[in-house]
């Protein structure tokens, strides 16, 4: 046995351990104190990072043997994300709400699970709201308002709303909505967005998916949302546009009380109306088709004409009311109930009200014009212009991108539909072809379960498809992210009300109208049908002696193609509207059970999934039951 070292040689080691332990203990205590007084930012960040690690590890290391296991893995991942969002609140709730509306991209396990975040967020205590008002307005709410309701009438991810009453200089009283930012949001937002960037970077590194290209733009949008003064500017601009330029009386935006506007407090006129969340109430009281037509027209005009876009039009931010006798006149709760309960509102008697412009963007003119041209090209079969615009945006796959914008399958190849149909309905395996990233042999028989090898092939093709979609990330317009969010929420809104309008047709018409308006104003040269010379298809740019006549004839040809395309999709739309009515009528007379009604949006989603099946081997957003 060796001899023990002298006692004195152990003392430095023990001392170092004590020093290290004391240092770590002090650092931990200081961290916990900082975390406690700063909205638990460290714990929230670690919780988000740990959730991201769990999901990434699950998808990175697990290869499901069949669709049941794939669905179960998606459900576990969705449950993890839901827990993180619910416990962290704030911006995490808003991010989760955005994910819940991506039903044409994400598997149903994600969208159904994350719908729990659409309910009202818990309000903060009144004392904290009073402190925020005191810091921003310099007085307690009781000293500013004649009446201030201590109970919040609405609570969202970053703010809550209280009802109040102010007295004008002439002594008249006016009910107002007092929007107050939750006190911990400003402390949490930087850490939340830092975690968001880290998670995006980690997922991009692990899976090779292009996620960080839009992370900074989304983060900037959330930061702008914290300043209510910017929201008030957007509200004023859109209100002026709709009232003075569009002369619309069927849509209304509340007026802001500018004297009480601060970065964390905004006071607007009180609006008594019904939220579109209450689907049954809306259907019983209002003309839903007229309301949805107004909503789609207004948002398409914002996107294609005005260039200022409301990016958060979820049902709680879109209201309906009976139109007041005077534009902007207030109506009490009793007056609203009495006016609507007597009889259903006619189309010209109702008014759409838009709230919460916090998450909004201002489009550059170049993007706005090209986006309108893109929609026109989709409906005039102008594939040359479509490819030109998409290529200039650094996007390699024009068909997939067009499908994402229309939220319906789209193909510029006359044979693609046949190939896709054959691939999606064939009973054998798809033979490989050189240069085709999706030619991995995959058994697509609906009578057999997907094997483990087919699952691996799907994951490989999916990753390749997504990574090659964005050919040049530097060219991709960041506005596409939030504009796409807005359009996707509008699609979901239309669907929740039974698809009363043809969304795609309305957007296409308003896009063409915006192009024609600019041409008429002389901002861009016109060649008929709103076809600006700079926006003409390459085939229409003729330098021959015929010149203008040739361009005029070709413009008329595109006009005819456009009208025929719109007419065709309108026929399909109204056929399904009639079929829905007939099935419900038949059930009311001959069947005790309500029929399962498939709307045109449901069929479009099915077709989109079949297209994804042709590309990837099976639909991305489908359940295992549909794959047998």
What is shown here, in short?
Helices cover 56% and strands 7% of the residues. The chain has 628 residues and is of the alpha+beta class.
Describe this structure in words.
- The chain has 628 residues and is α+β, with helices and mostly antiparallel strands.
- The chain contains 22 helices and 11 strands.
- It has helices at 11-37, 41-61, 67-88, 91-100, 108-114, 126-137, 141-144, 185-207, 212-224, 228-245, 279-285, 288-306, 333-341, 365-379, 383-392, 398-406, 416-425, 452-469, 479-496, 503-521, 548-590, 600-616; strands at residues 147-148, 154-155, 159-167, 173-181, 251-252, 265-269, 274-275, 308-310, 318-322, 350-354, 360-362.
- Strands 1, 2, 3, 4 and 6 form a 5-stranded antiparallel beta sheet that branches.
- Strand 2 and strand 3 form a beta hairpin.
- The termini are far apart.
- Residues 333-342, 415-450, 530-545 and 615-628 have low confidence and may be disordered.
Q: Helix fraction? A: 55-70%
Instruction: Give the biggest beta sheet.
Output: 5 strands, antiparallel
CA-based gyration radius: 28 Å
Strand-residue proportion: 5-15%
Number of strands: 11
What's the mean pLDDT score?
Answer: 75
- Which runs of at least 5 residues are low in confidence (pLDDT < 50)? 333-342, 415-450, 530-545, 615-628
Ends apart, CA distance between termini: 71 Å
Class based on secondary structure composition and strand pairing: alpha+beta
Q: Rough shape?
A: globular
Count of helix runs:
22
């Amino acid at each position: 046995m060796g001899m023990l070292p002298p006692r004195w040689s152990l003392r430095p080691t023990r001392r170092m351990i004590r020093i290290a332990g004391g240092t770590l203990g002090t650092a931990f205590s200081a961290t916990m104190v900082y975390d406690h007084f700063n909205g638990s930012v460290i714990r929230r960040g670690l919780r988000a990072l740990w959730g991201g690690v769990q999901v990434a590890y699950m998808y990175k290391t697990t290869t499901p043997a069949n669709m049941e296991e794939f669905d179960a893995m998606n459900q576990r991942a969705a449950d993890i994300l839901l827990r993180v969002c619910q416990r962290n609140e704030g911006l995490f709730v808003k991010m989760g709400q955005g994910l819940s509306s991506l039903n044409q991209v994400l598997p149903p396990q994600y969208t159904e699970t994350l719908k729990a975040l659409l309910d009202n967020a818990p309000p903060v205590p009144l004392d904290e709201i009073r402190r925020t008002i005191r810091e921003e307005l310099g007085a307690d709410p009781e000293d500013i308002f004649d009446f201030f309701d201590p109970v919040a009438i609405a609570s969202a991810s970053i703010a809550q709303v209280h009802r109040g009453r102010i007295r004008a200089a002439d002594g008249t009283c006016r009910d107002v909505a007092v929007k107050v930012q939750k006190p911990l949001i400003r402390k949490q937002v930087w850490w939340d967005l830092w975690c968001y960037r880290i998670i995006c970077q980690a997922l991009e590194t692990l899976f090779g998916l292009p996620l960080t290209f839009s992370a900074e733009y989304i983060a900037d949008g959330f930061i702008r949302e914290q300043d209510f003064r910017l929201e008030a500017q957007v509200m004023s601009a859109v209100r002026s546009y709709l009232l003075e330029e569009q002369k619309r009386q069927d849509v209304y935006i509340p007026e802001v009380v500018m004297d009480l506007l601060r970065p964390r407090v905004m006071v607007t006129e009180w609006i008594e109306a019904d939220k579109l969340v209450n689907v049954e109430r809306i259907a019983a009281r209002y003309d839903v088709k007229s309301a949805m037509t107004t909503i789609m027209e207004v948002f398409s005009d914002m996107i294609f004409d005005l260039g200022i876009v409301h990016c958060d039009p979820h049902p709680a931010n879109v209201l309906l009311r009976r139109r007041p006798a005077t534009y902007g006149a207030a109506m009490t709760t009793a007056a609203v109930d009495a006016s609507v309960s007597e009889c259903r509102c006619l189309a010209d008697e109702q008014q759409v009200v838009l709230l919460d412009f916090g998450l909004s963007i201002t489009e550059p003119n170049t993007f706005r014009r090209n986006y309108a041209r893109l929609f026109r090209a989709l409906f005039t079969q102008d594939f040359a212009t479509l490819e030109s615009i998409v290529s200039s945006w650094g996007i390699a796959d024009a068909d997939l991108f067009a499908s994402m914008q229309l939220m319906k399958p789209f193909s510029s190849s006359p044979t693609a539909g046949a190939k896709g149909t054959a691939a999606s309905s064939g009973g054998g395996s798809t033979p490989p072809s050189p240069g085709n990233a999706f030619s991995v042999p995959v058994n697509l028989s609906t009578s057999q379960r997907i094997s483990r090898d087919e699952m691996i092939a799907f994951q490989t093709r999916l990753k390749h498809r997504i990574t090659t979609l964005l050919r040049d990330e530097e060219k991709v317009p960041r506005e596409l992210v939030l504009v796409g969010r807005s359009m996707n929420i509008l699609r979901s809104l239309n669907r929740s009300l039974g698809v009363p309008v043809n969304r795609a047709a309305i957007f296409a018409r308003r896009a063409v109208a915006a192009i024609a308006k600019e041409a008429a104003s002389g901002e861009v040269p016109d060649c008929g049908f709103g076809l600006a010379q700079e926006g003409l298809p390459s085939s229409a740019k003729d330098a021959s002696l015929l010149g203008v006549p040739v361009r005029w004839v070709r413009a008329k040809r595109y006009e005819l193609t456009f009208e025929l395309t719109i007419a065709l999709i309108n026929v399909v739309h109204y056929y399904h509207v009639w079929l829905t009515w007939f099935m419900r009528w038949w059930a009311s007379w001959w069947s005790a059970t309500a029929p399962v009604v498939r709307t045109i949006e449901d069929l479009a989603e099915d077709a989109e999934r079949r297209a994804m099946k042709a590309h990837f081997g099976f639909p991305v957003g489908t359940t295992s039951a549909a794959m047998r």
